[in-house]
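#structure-requests
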Amino acid sequence: MGLKVCFIGLGVMGYPMAGHLKTKGGLDVTVYNRTTEKAAKWVGEYGGSHGLTPAEAAAGADVVFACVGNDDDLRSVTTGEGGAFATMKEGAIFVDHTTASADVARELYATAAQKGIGFIDAPVSGGQAGAENGALTVMCGGDEETYKQVEPQIANYAKMCRLLGPSGAGQITKMVNQICIAGLVQGLAEGINFGKRAGLDIEAVIEVISKGAAQSWQMENRYQTMNKGEYEFGFAVDWMRKDLGICLDEAARIGADLPVTKIVDGFYEEIQQMGGNRWDTSSLLARLEK
């Protein structure tokens, strides 16, 4: 297609996502990472090139993708010193895969528009495995015409991608996603703990109930490691608390009641106090078993 793209942020998600743009999409990819060694490693593995700043990496790109930590990180790589917006050409598009607030999405959408740049907020779900397998779910907010231009590129690492409304709608949808997950994981943790204390064979129990109405992605993909007390992998508790904090802030703003989410967020705080900051979110079971 002759597109030149940039990917900013080579964490556990961004590294393979950028790789898919290169290998599956066949695109000319320039990467940037706060740790230059990581960017150099990516180039050694996939080819392409890397920039020493977001601005350097984004110069001349048709589409700039980003997947960083939070609102402040996102502002830093876009409008901060050496940020990508300084060198992005008119008509280029910035696609943000960070899980951030809807406020920062709308803020950067407006700033980008003033510079003649398109902006799509596009948080993802599916975890590290989804990123590595090119099977992420991508929730987008922004202008329809802008979205149509980047949808084919996003398809290189997504099994589902949809525009859900104007700027900020992608981030709001990701909040819905995290709200649902929080309750599901707590329910699964309680069910496994209950079954173990009742003397049941959890493997057999899950094999049966996972074929009925209780089935969920969390049940299918996490029950075995939860049953073994293994949590040193996956989506970290610290990240989930960041996401749930965004949900609770937005809920307060729009007047939505999130009683279960608030309770589960408190449970994750207890996990942090147990030293489980980097444990997988399924570690809610560890709190019940302590």
